Amino acid sequence: MERKNPVFTAFVYLCAILLAAVILAPLAWLFVMSISPAADLAAKPLRWWPQAADFSRYAQLLSRAENSAGAAFTSSLRNSLEVAGMATLAAILLAVPAGWAVSRTPSVGWSLSMVIATYMLPPVALSVPLYMGLSNLGLLNNVFGLALIYLTILAPFTTWLMKSGFDSIPREIEAAAMIDGAGLLQTWRIITLPLAAPVVATSALFAVLLAWDEFFYALLFTSDQRAKTLTVAIADLAGGRVSDYGLIATAGVLAALPPVLIGLVMQRALISGLTSGGVKG
Amino acid sequence: MSGTWMTTRAWLLMLPLLVIMVAVIGWPLVDTVRLSFTDAQLVGTAGNYVGFDNYTNMLTSSNFSRTLITTTWFAVVSVAAEMVIGVLAALLLNQEFRGRAILRGLMILPWALPTVVNATLWRLIYNPEYGALNAALTQLHLIDDYRSWLGEPGTALAALIVADCWKNFPLVALIALAALQTVPRDITAAALVDGAGPFNRFRFVILPYLAGPLMVALVLRTIEAFKVFDIIWVMTRGGPANSTRSLSILVYQEAFSFQRAGSGASLALIVTLLVTVLAVAYATLVRKTAGSAA
């Protein structure tokens, strides 16, 4: 390691402050915009700090009055929660048996490799038939239809995470239970699933983040408040004729809160999940 | 328990996943291939077989070549910047200083921020009339007049790349940091004793440990950058004057705005082929890097 050189130490602190500023400044500005009165945001020179903090936009967006900005926002919030919840649950239900099978029977692993290779496919390569298919099934502009499509993204990823998780559970423990007369389902219930619970939780959180973030399919396959998700609602606001930029910023803060909280709380697990593939190379 | 039964059981357990994957990925992909040889419209007519017409029309159009160049430029510049800034940030975070754990925690924020929120945030920052960038640069006397950063072909793509880098360099930094922490301390100490300077220590002692994980990050980020849609759609919709149009945006316009499903499908498959070639080339490179590092 470096010798304790005061010039070097000062340099390290300078860089650290710079890095912190680069990360925090845009985020802080998003929040400041959300609580600044519209007049402050339009002032020249720009007021960097509001004269009086104004939280009314949060109340406005979370209210459910008919035909208001709040009605559109709260319905998209509900749709995002429903789609992310259903897609995550389905992805985990598919991933647990499949991940276990590949972990314990490597000879079928090539099929999982094929599923994971679909990550390379740009969504546009599937979008036209998916659009026509959903249209034929009457599932366009429908949260169930969108959740089903989200499995294209969520299921390969969760299966891969579950497979790595099961790999770290010694199969000898399962074998011991089976020798004692437990069947497969019983062994899973008593031994495997409790040991795999942390991996299931991590996979589920990753899946929620992916579904919450998704924009392309939601833009294509939803058209009104019955199914539009948050990302589409925010893109509508950003590209629309809303004159109050603070309102757009407020919607952004609210949409960012759940994933940012998940990210901060799950920091350690997320980082090890993100890097496990990378570090193992 | 016999091997055959184990294998059969494994397939049975994988069946639900495989059925769903065939339904939502396999079948649509095959159908895209079929559509690409027809003149089908998105709604209504099923279309007639037209052979390779869609492909030849697409590959010879100036729209395609221009969009390919734009997408490549976006991918190369943003990924290169993310890798360099990410590694520098990781080297910093690997030093010992007060507040290091907090700073490392902050790195998760841009990554966790939804892409659409990130795009919206930067769109507001670049706003030509009220944006923070114009205000800051004017107040610092670096520019005299407010500019339309996203409204001029000369600056729009660069502005997009900055927004993309800000969101994605922290992920590279976290991956590089995890790899840095696997470098044994006695090796760096020995290099120091042998009189190796900072550059040589990085090049010959630290980089071999970083190469594998960084290659993986490079592959994933490049594939993502080539498929880019969300951030561009929200910030510029491919404009002004198509100066920020990516391949995915072009497919969207062709298949959904103009409803030319057949032609859009052929373009989507060209993009898929490009990404696949890229991924295979990279995978070969990763294997070589892993071989030489060992």
Question: Could you characterize what this model shows?
Answer:
The complex is a heterodimer of chains A (281) and B (294). Chain A is mainly alpha-helical and 281 residues long. Chain A has a single domain, classed as MetI-like fold (Orthogonal Bundle), CATH 1.10.3720. Helix content of chain A is 77%, strand content 0%. In chain A, α1 packs across α12. Chain B has two domains: 36 residues, no CATH class; 242 residues, MetI-like fold (Orthogonal Bundle). Chain B is 75% helix and 0% strand. Chain B is built from 13 helices and no strands. In chain B, α3 runs antiparallel to α10.
On the 0 to 100 scale, the average pLDDT of chain B is: 90
CATH superfamily of the largest domain in chain B: MetI-like
Whole-angstrom Rg of chain A: 24 Å
What is the CATH architecture descriptor of the largest domain in chain B? Orthogonal Bundle
In total, how many beta strands of chain B? 0
Broad CATH class of the largest domain in chain B: Mainly Alpha
Would you list the SSEs of chain B in sequence order as H and E?
HHHHHHHHHHHHH
Largest sheet of chain B: none
Name the shape of chain A in a single word: globular
Quote the beta fraction of chain A: under 5%
- CATH topology descriptor of the largest domain in chain B: MetI-like fold
How many runs of DSSP E, i.e. beta strands of chain A?
A: 0
* CATH level 4 superfamily of chain A: MetI-like
User: Span from first to last CA of chain B?
Assistant: 39 Å
The ordered H/E elements of chain A are: HHHHHHHHHHHHH
How many domains, in number, for the residues of chain B? 2
